[in-house]
Design brief:
Layout lengths: L1 H8 L7 E9 L2 E2 L2 E4 L4 E10 L3 E10 L6 E7 L3 E10 L8 E2 L2 H23 L1
Parallel strand pairs: 2-8
Antiparallel strand pairs: 1-3, 1-5, 4-5, 4-7, 6-7
Length: 124
């Protein structure tokens, strides 16, 4: 009876649970779980940095952000990524391959070192 009453008043809504990853490369993302706010969906954001590096993010997004191409600042050095958020509406539908944090750290460090070396060689 209480559930019916709450539904009719609109006070009860299910919270959508999604994976969250602030930054991943290719299909590698260190994920955690997150709860979306009301009227948000799970998303997988995909984009390219410098036309070579596949970048991925996961999380919750407002409906109006879904399917829209945006430019995101990736690093403090003004590397920009054109990214599109692909949304879905079932729990954990934005699945990503989980990596141990140390594997992601090593991958990120190798990537940043390679990028820094290529930037240094172009500047000389």
């Amino acid at each position: 009876f209480v559930g019916i009453l709450l539904d009719s008043v609109g006070l009860e809504h299910e919270v959508l649970k999604c994976f969250r990853c602030d930054l991943g490369f290719w299909d590698a993302c260190y994920t955690t779980e997150t709860n979306c706010s009301n009227k948000e969906l799970c998303y997988t954001g995909r984009g390219k940095a410098a036309d070579a590096l596949d970048v991925k993010t996961l999380g919750c997004a407002k409906v109006e952000e879904c399917g829209v191409e945006t430019t995101v600042k990736l690093f403090p050095n003004k590397t920009f990524v054109v990214m599109t958020k692909h949304c879905c509406d079932t729990p954990f539908c934005n699945f990503a391959h989980k990596l141990p944090i140390n594997t992601l750290l090593y991958l990120t460090m190798a990537l940043l070192t390679t990028w820094h070396l290529s930037e240094s060689s172009m500047g000389s």
